[in-house]
C-alpha cells in the first residue's frame, strides 16, 4: 500500500534533509577527534589538527587545548564536549527554515488556529530528548503561534510560571491588540505532552514517572486542570484557558489526543489513537480521510459532528491528528516505521530557557529552569540518562546553559549572562565529582529574543581559563 493520502511529500523531504544534516554534523565528531588524538605526537600537530577540525567539523578547536606532550597528552574529553557545543552552535546559526508548518491546505495556519478559537499555544512536553522534535516534527504547528515551549521532567510544569506566561500574552492583547484584541472570544491553549514506548512501555517510557504510562498521563492531566482552575479562580470576567492532553509513542511518533467533551473535560481513557486512525484512513482519498478524522474526533468527544459549541477544539484536534499522520508517514518512510534507537541517544543536555531553532528527536535532554534549586530533580534525571549514555563510554556530558534576553530592555543581556553563569556554577558544584573527573563540561550562551538573532557565547569554554597566556591577553587563538 502507498503512502498516507494526508502526508505532504515536500514537507517530509525538507524535514528529512534537516534531520540528516543534524545527524551528520554530530556523527562527524568522534571519528575526527579519534584522528586528532592519533596524531598528537607529530610535528606541526596543532596546525594539522586545526585544519582537520575545520575541514571535517566546520570549526577550529581552542588553540590552547591542542598542546600535547608525553607527560600531558591531549584532553580528548574536553575537546569532545567542546566539539558537541560548537556543532550545536553551528547548527543554530544555520537558521533552518521553520516555515513549513505556516500553511495548512493553503491557508495561513495561525489564522486558522485563531478561527478555531485559540490565540496562543503553550506546549509543555517532557524533558526527554525523544520529544525534542515535538513542535516541527510530531505536531507540526507553526512556531509563530507557539508562544511558549518549556520542557520539564515528566512534563510537570510550574503552575505559577505558566500563569505568568498566560498573563504576558493577555496583557499584550489588552495593550497592543496582538495577536488579537482582548475582547475577541479566543482562548489561550496549553498543551501537555506525555510519552510512552509502544514496544517497551515498562522500560522505555517516561523515566520521571517510572515508565508508567498511566501515571505520566494522570499526573499531567491533574496539572493541566489545576492550571485552568488557577486562572479561573484568580481572574474575573470569566477568564479561562483551554487545555489539551496529548500522548506520544516515542517508537513511532504517533500521538493520541485526549479530546475534551462537551463540558470541556478530558479523560485518561478517552482519546483518539492516531496509529490506529492512520491505518483506518490509509487507503482513503484525501477528503474521505479528513472526514474520517473529524468523525473520530467527534465520536471521542461524544458530540454530533456538527456540534457548534465544541467545533473549534475538535477541528484543532483533527488538525493535529492530520499533521501527525504525516509524521507517522515520515517515520515509516525514513525509519522503517519504528525508530531503531528506541531509547535515549541525546547529544547533550540543555538547561535554562528553551531553544527550538534546532529541532530533532533525541537532540537534547531539555530541562528548563532558572536556578538549580528549581530544576534539580529534572537535571538529576538528565545526568542519570547521560551517565549511561556517555560516561559509561568514557565520554563527558556536555551541558549547554542557555538564556534569552530582550535587547529592548535595559540591562537584560547582563542579567541573562549573570543568570547563566550562576546556573553554570551551581551545576558544576552539584556534580563536582563528574567535573573533577573531566566527565561534565558546561557552556553558557545567551540569545536576543528578536527573530534571527544569533547565539552568543558567554566567556570562554570552561577549563580554558587556566591556560591564559602570560601576557594577559584573552584571545583564544593566542593562548598557548
Ligand atoms: Zn518523560
Ligand atoms: Zn475584570
Ligand atoms: Zn598573549
From TrEMBL:
<keyword id="KW-0479">Metal-binding</keyword>
<comment type="similarity">
    <text>Belongs to the beta-class carbonic anhydrase family. CsoSCA subfamily.</text>
</comment>
<keyword id="KW-1283">Bacterial microcompartment</keyword>
<dbReference type="GO" id="GO:0004089">
    <property type="term" value="F:carbonate dehydratase activity"/>
</dbReference>
<keyword id="KW-1282">Carboxysome</keyword>
<dbReference type="GO" id="GO:0031470">
    <property type="term" value="C:carboxysome"/>
</dbReference>
<keyword id="KW-0862">Zinc</keyword>
<keyword id="KW-0456">Lyase</keyword>
<dbReference type="InterPro" id="IPR048539">
    <property type="entry name" value="CsoSCA_cat"/>
</dbReference>
<feature type="domain" description="Carboxysome Shell Carbonic Anhydrase C-terminal">
    <location>
        <begin position="345"/>
        <end position="459"/>
    </location>
</feature>
<dbReference type="GO" id="GO:0015977">
    <property type="term" value="P:carbon fixation"/>
</dbReference>
<feature type="domain" description="Carboxysome Shell Carbonic Anhydrase catalytic">
    <location>
        <begin position="110"/>
        <end position="344"/>
    </location>
</feature>
<keyword id="KW-0120">Carbon dioxide fixation</keyword>
<feature type="domain" description="Carboxysome Shell Carbonic Anhydrase N-terminal">
    <location>
        <begin position="4"/>
        <end position="95"/>
    </location>
</feature>
<dbReference type="InterPro" id="IPR043066">
    <property type="entry name" value="CsoSCA_C_sf"/>
</dbReference>
<protein>
    <recommendedName>
        <fullName>Carboxysome shell carbonic anhydrase</fullName>
        <ecNumber>4.2.1.1</ecNumber>
    </recommendedName>
</protein>
<dbReference type="GO" id="GO:0046872">
    <property type="term" value="F:metal ion binding"/>
</dbReference>
<dbReference type="Pfam" id="PF20686">
    <property type="entry name" value="CsoSCA_cat"/>
</dbReference>
<dbReference type="Pfam" id="PF20687">
    <property type="entry name" value="CsoSCA_N"/>
</dbReference>
<dbReference type="InterPro" id="IPR014074">
    <property type="entry name" value="Carboxysome_shell_carb_anhy"/>
</dbReference>
<dbReference type="InterPro" id="IPR048619">
    <property type="entry name" value="CsoSCA_N"/>
</dbReference>
<dbReference type="InterPro" id="IPR043065">
    <property type="entry name" value="CsoSCA_N_sf"/>
</dbReference>
<dbReference type="InterPro" id="IPR048620">
    <property type="entry name" value="CsoSCA_C"/>
</dbReference>
<dbReference type="Pfam" id="PF08936">
    <property type="entry name" value="CsoSCA_C"/>
</dbReference>
Amino acid at each position: 500500500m502507498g503512502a498516507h493520502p494526508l502526508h505532504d511529500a515536500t514537507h517530509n523531504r525538507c524535514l528529512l534533509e534537516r534531520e540528516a544534516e543534524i545527524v551528520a554534523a554530530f556523527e562527524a565528531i568522534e571519528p575526527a577527534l579519534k584522528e586528532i588524538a592519533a596524531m598528537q605526537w607529530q610535528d606541526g600537530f596543532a596546525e594539522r589538527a586545526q585544519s582537520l577540525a575545520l575541514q571535517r567539523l566546520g570549526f577550529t578547536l581552542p588553540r590552547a587545548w591542542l598542546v600535547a606532550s608525553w607527560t600531558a597528552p591531549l584532553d580528548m574529553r574536553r575537546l569532545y564536549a567542546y566539539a558537541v557545543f560548537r556543532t550545536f552552535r553551528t547548527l543554530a546559526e544555520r537558521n533552518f527554515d521553520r516555515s513549513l508548518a505556516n500553511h495548512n491546505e493553503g491557508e495561513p495556519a495561525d489564522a486558522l488556529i485563531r478561527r478555531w478559537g485559540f490565540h496562543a499555544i503553550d506546549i509543555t512536553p517532557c524533558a526527554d530528548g525523544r520529544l525534542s522534535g515535538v513542535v516541527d516534527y510530531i505536531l507540526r504547528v507553526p512556531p509563530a503561534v507557539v508562544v511558549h515551549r518549556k520542557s520539564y521532567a515528566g512534563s510537570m510544569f510550574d503552575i505559577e510560571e505558566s500563569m505568568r506566561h498566560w498573563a504576558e500574552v493577555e496583557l499584550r492583547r489588552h495593550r497592543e491588540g496582538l495577536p488579537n484584541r482582548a475582547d475577541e472570544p479566543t482562548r489561550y491553549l496549553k498543551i501537555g505532552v506525555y510519552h510512552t514506548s509502544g514496544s517497551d512501555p515498562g522500560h522505555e517510557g517516561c523515566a520521571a514517572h517510572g515508565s508508567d504510562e498511566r501515571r505520566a498521563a494522570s499526573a499531567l492531566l491533574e496539572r493541566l486542570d489545576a492550571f485552568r482552575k488557577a486562572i479561573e479562580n484568580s481572574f474575573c470576567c470569566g477568564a479561562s484557558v483551554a487545555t489539551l492532553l496529548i500522548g506520544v509513542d516515542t517508537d513511532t511518533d504517533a500521538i493520541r489526543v485526549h479530546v475534551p467533551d462537551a463540558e470541556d473535560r478530558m479523560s485518561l481513557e478517552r482519546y483518539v489513537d492516531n496509529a490506529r486512525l492512520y491505518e483506518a484512513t490509509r487507503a482513503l482519498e484525501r477528503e474521505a480521510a479528513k472526514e474520517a478524522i473529524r468523525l473520530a474526533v467527534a465520536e471521542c468527544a461524544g458530540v454530533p459532528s456538527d456540534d457548534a459549541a465544541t467545533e473549534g477544539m475538535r477541528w484543532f484536534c483533527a488538525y493535529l491528528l492530520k499533521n501527525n499522520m504525516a509524521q507517522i508517514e515520515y517515520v515509516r518512510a525514513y525509519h522503517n516505521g519504528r525508530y531503531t534507537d528506541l531509547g535515549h541517544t541525546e547529544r547533550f543536555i540543555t538547561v535554562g530557557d528553551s531553544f527550538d531553532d534546532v529541532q530533532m528527536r533525541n537532540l537534547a535532554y531539555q530541562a528548563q529552569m532558572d536556578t538549580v534549586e528549581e530544576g534539580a530533580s529534572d537535571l538529576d534525571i538528565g545526568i542519570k540518562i547521560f551517565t549511561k549514555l556517555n560516561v559509561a563510554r568514557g565520554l563527558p556530558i556536555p551541558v549547554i546553559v542557555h538564556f534569552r534576553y530582550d535587547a529592548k530592555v535595559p540591562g537584560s543581556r547582563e542579567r541573562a549572562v549573570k543568570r547563566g553563569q550562576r546556573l553554570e556554577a551551581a551545576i558544576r558544584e552539584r556534580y563536582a565529582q563528574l567535573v573533577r573527573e573531566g566527565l561534565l563540561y558546561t557552556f553558557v550562551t545567551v540569545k536576543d529574543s528578536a527573530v534571527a538573532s544569533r547565539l552568543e557565547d558567554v566567556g570562554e569554554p570552561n577549563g580554558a581559563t587556566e591556560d591564559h597566556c602570560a601576557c594577559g591577553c584573552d584571545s583564544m587563538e593566542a593562548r598557548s
